[in-house]
Amino acid sequence: MFIGHWAPALAAAGHRKAPRPWVLFLAAQLVDVAFFTFVLLGVEDMRIEPGATVMNPMDLYHMPYTHSLLGTLGWAAALAVLVWLALRDRFSAMLVGAVAVSHWLLDLLVHRPDLTLAGSPPKLGLGLWNHPWVEIPLELGITGAALWWYARRTRGPRLPLVALAVLLLAMQAVNWLGEQPAAMSAELPVTALVAYAVAIAAAWWLGTSRLMREAEG
Questions:
Q1: Which DSSP helix (H) or strand (E) runs through 27?
Q2: Cβ pair 102, 28 in contact under 8 A
Q3: According to a count of CB atoms within 10 Å of the terminal CB, is the N or C end of the chain lower?
């Protein structure tokens, strides 16, 4: 799951009490931002194993602090506390935390068994990356539905919304159709972190240009 992780963020952004979309976009990929940062620091590990799954060659063999359910809950709680301190709004904090937790639940659908509950076996994952004709329409479907929902719930110029949609589709196309890495290097986590930053910046632009329809009148 790549752009599908932003579907809960877009859906949540359609609530009139939601924080800015960029905050929700960060929440949706917080676990992966932490993971790829930890990979660069040598705290967690991955390797490239061609054929690991049909759609993804990553062997995510050591990620107890980010992709365990307990770890995800910890990251979600930390971000929720920061949002509460910034906004003093309990609902916004809880919404951000829920979006962050959704990352693990969506990963559970697509990963092969490499997720854990608390950093040690059993390892979990339903493996939809091995079933592209299920995973592809699922990812595109939930992302498209969330974009539609957000568009229905807000008003403002269409350009930022269209630009975000095109950006997400382009990112996903590169992820699915681009040349897969043959070996692990720092380029992979750095590229992922840059992609997340670009998407979050696009969400920031979106949030500065569209307002909730309930605010009219």
A1: helix 21-28
A2: yes
A3: C
Residue 146's SS3 state is helix
Nearest to 107 by CA among 22, 206, 32, 26: 32
Structure tokens at 130: 């091995």
Report the C-alpha dihedral over residues 136, 137, 140, 141, rounded to 10 degrees: -150
Angle at 156 between CA 206 and CA 90, to 5 degrees: 60
Residue 211 pairs in a beta bridge with 155
Take residue 89 and report the two structure tokens written for it. 């709004």
Per-residue pLDDT tens for 65-90? 999 999 999 999 999 999 999 999 99
pTM over cut 0.85:
yes
**pLDDT tens digits, residue range 197-209?**
999 999 999 999 9
Asked if the model's pLDDT at residue 216 lies above 90, the reply is: no
Helix (H) or strand (E) holding 33: helix 30-41
Domain ranges of the chain: 3-208
SS in 3 state form for 61-107? EECCCCCEHHHHHHHHHHHHHHHHHHHCCHHHHHHHHHHHHHHHHHH
Q: How far apart are CA 151 and CA 86, in angstroms?
A: 26
What's the rounded Cα separation, in Å, for the pair 14 and 31? 22
| 137 contact partners, CB below 8 Å, separation of at least 6 | none
pLDDT tens digits for 38-53? Answer: 999 999 999 999 999 9
Examine the pLDDT at 217 and tell me if it is beyond 70. no
Q: Report how far residue 196's alpha carbon sits from residue 202's, in angstroms, rounded to the nearest whole number.
A: 10
